[in-house]
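To start, an entry.
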Amino acid sequence: MHGQARGPRQGAPGTEQSRRGAAEFLAHYPNQAARVQELLPPGADVNEAAIGFRNFGQLIATAHVSKNLNVPFEDLKARVTSTDAMSLGKAIHELRPGLSNSEVEQAVRAAKRAEKEARKTGKEQIKSKVQS
């Protein structure tokens, strides 16, 4: 179902991320907040930016695409977090209709790699916090 809006999935099942949204996750892991802040437009508040995202992965993927394709973050966020949310790829096509399918696919793949790395780092932080 490539390109269709996604349901209310909340991160990987059984993880701390699955039980809370991106804003709450960032409150507990400030180094991840710093990572996202680097991707946001100058002057943007990372905590405000995180509101509405289902999970940290969705936030960081959106922030990467915004920065890499020079798409306004707030416009992209509005499309992927609204009640009639669309996929990241569809949102890119809507905001940058001149991009080819391969350019959009490449941007989404890069964002997904960043999301995967962020999830891995987040899981490691959760594990070390639990063990402390």
